[in-house]
Design a protein that fits this description.
Bound molecules: zinc ion
Oligomer: single chain
Largest sheet: 5 strands, mixed
Radius of gyration: 46 Å
Shape: extended
Strand order of the largest sheet: 2-4-5-7-6
Length: about 300
């Protein structure tokens, strides 16, 4: 069992000077001590190699520090591919916020304004419009300030083209005022045409918007007329139909769009939508409903 002696002697025979005696003495304990010393030495050596010398800690630290810093740098590239899939859903929500500022307010018999809707920035036309450009039929006619400004610029440009004698017959109409207009029209038709209230109301709604469906409620629509003259067919009507888009206004109710707008043609009713929208509608021969449909689908 005990085969230690041959092993001990083998190495010593290669040398000279009594190699056996020291081998015998160091039998179990010395070998263990030598092994421990060797392993200890190796460990210390490794420690010094890896961590450097304890008395030179300033140079030791940079080694472990540089290792962690390298990791975060290589790590970020991995998370970055994760965000890339998210951009694909984002294009879908973007159209919804866009409509609010860019799509003009659409008001018709299918799109009623809320009962409590009051436009912002209403101004009295009589206070702003120069009397030498346009006469205002009624001191209380109001409109959105930006729309009124554009209206004045437009009518001035018409005068530069030799087309004058303008009048504004209507602007902003409150919900209560719209209701009164409809009631008056129904009464008139009942009297003049001997109609029942229901029939008179149906007939009235072809020309008078039901409360909440009038563009005049927006403060962005005006009835532009010539005093004492039926407007349709005048040179003023023709000029507006051809040029109003350049100033942000649209010829809102045209004969060939009655099916879409739900209103009979009105040569005098102009709606402010801004130059960009008005230009697109003019070029494509779109009414506001068609333009809004186009924007919602794109
Ligand atoms: Zn009108």
């Amino acid at each position: 069992m005990d085969q230690r002696p041959p092993r001990r002697y083998e190495p010593t025979r290669t040398g000279y000077r009594q190699p056996p005696p020291p081998a015998r003495r160091s039998n179990p304990l010395t070998r263990l001590a030598v092994a421990m010393a060797l392993t200890g030495g190796v460990m210390v050596g490794c420690f010094l190699l890896v961590y450097g010398f304890p008395w030179a800690q300033d140079t030791v630290r940079p080694v472990p520090v540089s290792a962690p810093t390298a990791l975060p740098i290589t790590a970020p590239p991995a998370p970055t591919p994760a965000p890339t899939p998210t951009p694909t859903p984002t294009p879908i929500p973007t159209p919804s916020p866009a409509p609010t500022p860019s799509i003009p307010l659409l008001v018709n018999k299918q799109n009623l304004l809320p009962n409590n809707y009051v436009p912002t920035n209403l101004v009295r036309l009589i206070d702003i419009c120069p009397g030498n450009v346009v006469s205002i039929k009624g001191r209380d006619i109001e409109g959105n300030a930006a729309a009124v400004d554009a209206l004045i610029v437009m009518l001035r440009a018409a005068m530069d083209d030799g087309i004058g004698n303008w009048q504004i017959s209507a602007g902003y109409r409150s919900l209560r005022y719209q209701q009164r207009l409809l009631d008056d029209k129904v009464s008139e038709l009942m009297r003049s045409n001997n109609l029942s209230r229901d029939r008179a109301r149906t007939a009235a709604l072809k020309t008078v918007a039901p409360p909440g469906a009038s563009e005049h409620h927006t403060g962005l629509a005006f009835d532009i007329t010539v005093p004492g003259v039926s407007f349709a067919g005048t040179k003023q009507a023709q000029w507006l139909a051809e040029n109003s888009y350049r100033f942000g206004f649209i010829f809102r109710y045209q004969a060939h769009k009655e099916e879409i707008t739900g209103f009979l043609a009105e040569a005098w009713h102009y709606r402010y939508v801004g130059v960009e929208a008005a230009t697109v509608m003019k070029r494509n021969d779109w009414c506001l409903e068609e333009y809004v449909d186009f924007l919602m689908q794109n």
